[in-house]
Amino acid sequence: MANESDSGQEKTEQPTAKKLRDAKQKGQVPRSKELNSMTIMVFGALGLLFMGSHMIEHILIFMQEGFTISRADVYSRQAVFEKFGVATYEALTAIGPFMFLMTVIAIFTPLAIGGWSFSIESMAFKADRISPIAGFKRMFSAKGLMELLKAMAKFLVVSSVAVVFLWSKADEFLGLGSQSLNLALQHGAWLLGQSFLVVSSTLILIAAIDVPFQLWDHSQKLKMTLQEVRDELKDTEGKPEVRSKVRQVQQEMAQRRMMEAVPDADVIITNPTHYAVALKYDHDSMAAPVVLAMGKDLVALKIREIAEFHDIEIFEAPPLARALCANCKLDREIPAPLYFAVAQILAFVFQLRIARDQGSEMPQRPDPYMPTDEEA
After folding, report:
1. For helices 33-67 and 77-108, what crossing angle results, to 10°?
2. Could you tell me the CA-to-CA distances from 60 to 54, 73, 98, 183, 211 in Å, in that order?
3. Per-residue pLDDT tens digits for 184-216
4. By CB count within 10 A, which of 8, 211, 270, 370 is most buried?
């Protein structure tokens, strides 16, 4: 099949953002020659209609100044330069606004469907562009046939409309010969603008067909096979084993940072062996206790080892430890339903520190109150 890749897979997938971006960098953007021709012709006709009298007026002045010169002015260098300056000014005044309009339309019309695209790569020399064989292939390709059919359709539509319009305006065109020069020029410019606008308007139909076709054709050319999509995903995001290794390194770094925060904890609540949660509370800067570290099994063992090394109180409360691991996030405050249970433990820990420092009676170990499912 024509739309199959070398691997035998059909190009059924829409182009990815990267594919579209790479194509634009290469200068491969949708363009419609018919849209460009239509806008230039239509706005040119409108420009002649609205600026025609202004152009004729200044062209007449240009001609009068250019062809009217006295014998004395012929031998005067200053007079010649003055005549030249006036003629130049009138010529620029006559055609300047129209040329400016046409330049703006010619520059900005292509941006309507493809956007701005400047590619050095598309300007590079390619031998197939001057190859006769490649040229014949393009001429007799499906695209060449499409361009031929478009050209024939455009010729038939434009010529038919032109013949009908000129036939209907034949009397006005023939009547120009009986009018004065100034009036004939102004009337002729108006008829020319009308003719130009009517004939150009037929291109709107052709452009309305060509623009969707060019967008569809551009999308079809950039379609991808499933394998191409997978390969691009691997190239952009890396191979699965590489992504797995990156995730592993990220987890190790996060765990290392978490372990570094354990010495700052006020208490470690454990299961006692399967779970461990490190909490810190500062009544001056925190609204509620914050989780510094938590984990299960080997991570929990490591948290307990660091806590023992730094003489941090370890409090065994299996239900509370499981609840904290299930409902808390690192560096976040504990949920409100667990406030009371954690407050009992923290109060005990703070009292225990004071008792040890002062050598007073040790506080009684609390039995943390755990809320029921209805209370939570």
Report:
1. 170
2. 10, 20, 17, 12, 41
3. 877 887 788 788 888 888 888 888 888 888 888
4. 270
Strand-pairing partners, residue 290, are 280, 333
CB atoms under 10 Å from CB of 53, counted, come to 15
Q: Could you say which DSSP state residue 10 is in? A: B
What is the Cα–Cα distance from 183 to 187, expressed in whole angstroms? 6
Mean pLDDT of the chain: 79
In what helix (H) or strand (E) does residue 269 lie, and over which residues does it extend?
strand 267-270
Higher pLDDT, 276 or 51: 276
Tokens of 289: 């206790």
Neighbours of 80 (CB within 10 A): 13
Measured CA to CA, the distance from residue 245 to residue 187 in angstroms comes to: 80
Report the C-alpha dihedral over residues 371, 373, 298, 340, rounded to 10 degrees.
Answer: -20
Please check the confidence at residue 307 and state whether its pLDDT lies above 50.
yes
Which residues fall within 8 angstroms of residue 237, CB to CB, at 6 or more apart?
243
Specify the higher pLDDT residue, 151 or 119: 151
344-365 per-residue burial string, b: 16 or more CB within 10 A, e: under 16: bbbebbbbbeeeeeeeeeeeee
CA dist., res. 315 & res. 348, Å (int): 10
Amino acid present at 274: H
| Distance, C-alpha 54 to centroid of its chain | 43
How many angstroms separate the CA atoms of 245 and 255, rounded? 15
Are residues 269 and 277 in contact, defined by beta-carbon separation less than 8 angstroms? Answer: yes
Q: Cβ distance 296 to 325 under 8 Å? A: yes
Cα-based angle 286, 287, 288 (whole degrees, multiple of 5): 90
Structure tokens at 228: 């191409």
3-state secondary structure (DSSP) of residue 305:
helix
Written as six digits, the tokens of 48 are 């002649």
